[in-house]
Every structure is written in structure tokens, then in C-alpha cells.
Design a protein that fits this description.
The chain is mostly beta strands and 151 residues long. It has two helices and seven strands, in the order βββββββαα.
Amino acid sequence: MIIGLADIGPDGLDVSGEVPESALGCHAEDPVRCTGPVHSELHCQIVDQELLVDGTLSASLEMRCRRCDCTFTGVLENVRYHYDLALDPMPESVDLTDDIRESMLLAFPSYPVCAESCKGLCAQCGANLNEEVCGCKPPADVRWGALDRLG
């Protein structure tokens, strides 16, 4: 997303735009990735030879649950965005794409789960406990085994 500095008036400039999902560098095997462009609503101002940009970002996401490994979709909305740059010397334009990319990647959930009630996978057989009840027995508690052999 390129902002032309000559377009910014004394009251600033409101900019709506999109950064393509490819600019984020996500891959199909990533646990969280964008499924569409990053939408931005930004307000740009030049104050004392400094460019100030504030606004919000949003994007549709596809995530892999960290508990049950299923894929689910979600939306990341109203991610606060702030950017400032000293304008000495004054360029003709500023490209915000890399900074928007970084802001979105930092806003991705670090531990996505499909639902708070997700039961995850069985540690023994790997069955998805949200879809089936496996016949595995819990492992025996052997923490006190050495003491049981003393008596």
C-alpha cells in the first residue's frame, strides 16, 4: 500500500485499501494464514516533518486448531495500526506494505483453538475426542510405585 505524500492535506488523508494475502508470505502449512486481502482503514497526517498513520486492519483467516488439528476459519478485526516516519528528506511516497504485514503477523493468534470446549486428540491412539470416544484406558499412575514395593 503506497501513500503519496503530496495527496495529504492540512487535515490529513483518509485511506481505505487492501494488501494482497500474498504479501504476507503465508504458506498452506502455516498454522494461521490469511485467506484474502488485508483490509485497512487509515488516517494519514504530516506533523512537523513526520508522517503519522493510524487506523485499523482486518483479514479473514484460516487456522489449524492446536488441540485437535482440524482446520477452521475466523476473522481478525480492528487490529490497531500505527506507523510514524521522519520525513527528512521528503520522499514522494511511502510504501506501508511491509509494516502492515508485520502488524498483521504479530496480531495472529499464537494458540488458535476451534472452540474453548475442544477436547483435542487422544494421547495414546490419536483419535479426535470431539468426534469419537476412544477405548483407550488412561495410563496407570506409577508415581508411588517405588513406595508400594517397600511394604
